[in-house]
Amino acid sequence: MNTPERHPPGLADLRQLRQFIVVAEELNFRRAAIRLCMTQPPLSTAIRRLEETVGTPLFQRTRSSVSLTPAGVVFLREARYLLRQAEMSVAAARAATEGAREILRIKSIDSAMLNLLPEWLERFCAVEAGIRVSLTTGSSQDVISAVEGGSIDVGVCVPGGASHPQLRTFPFGRERFCLAVHRAHRFAGLGRVGLPDLAGEQLVTHYPHAASPGYHAAVSVALQQTGAHVHVHQSETHLLATLGLVRLGVGVALIPDSTRRIAMDGVVYVEVVSGQGEAVTYPIVLAVHHGGASAAAMRFCEFVRQDGDPGARRQGSG
User: Fold this and answer.
1) Whole-angstrom Cα distance, residue 116 to residue 99?
2) In this predicted structure, which of 79-88, 143-152, 159-168, 263-272 has the lowest mean pLDDT?
3) Lesser CB count within 10 Å: N end or C end of the chain?
4) Does 200 lie in the same domain as 127?
5) In this predicted model, what pLDDT tens digit does every residue of 26-78 receive, in sequence order?
6) Residue 295 and residue 85: Cα distance in Å, rounded?
7) Full residue range of the structural domain in which residue 160 is found
């Protein structure tokens, strides 16, 4: 006689995960119960049982407030990922039944959209006719958070120094820097500028440290290694805003070479090299979730890895 299969000890179900996520978002059991269309006492009981299953408190409760414990913060990230994976599994199964195309969700640093990423995707989709691509942009930190949270399948970003154990990365090339200057600037008529020549210039940086630590570090290292001392005027998180400040004469900008594809009146692009006359570059990677990458994501990464040498190709920033 067959017996009903039970959840293994220590395993939460999707209903519990949904309840936990709503409470974590509201940090108020009454409001969470309203969102979940249930009364508060059963919700409180369900969360206590979840904490017993996990083996540690997920919420710090006082008479006047509810907050996440350190374990709760970690569990929230994982719960959101697991719930999204479950929803994706259902959607994929329905799509397969209905004959719909597989979706590949990509979030990329903005300048990568200007050249190489679309070229890779065009070639990939030519051999993967069943793939439908969804594209969004953001800073490297936005990209990393989206991959970790499971809201996208593949991220394109500049690697930073911080450890991200949930991510698996693949080389995707190196991008050259170029210089954007006002058309009346002393560099505008030059074909090439050495980084040491930037001494004394006002520099408008593209992406502050918080938005893209890797890109910010690449800019800092480039300037330090060549001995150039510049005045950083301000940081902008959007490439077009940076170019707008250059056009206003606020300063010059050290930006990705792929930005040359953006034509803006009053802005001139100039090649920039190190003090030894070499190209100044930084790395770009593809990032997927280490334990839950979709089949489409892995096929795309493998396609890039096998189809030529991505390290010889130029890529975006941010």
Assistant:
1) 30
2) 79-88
3) N
4) no
5) 999 999 999 999 999 999 999 999 999 999 999 999 988 999 999 999 899 88
6) 12
7) 88-172+283-312
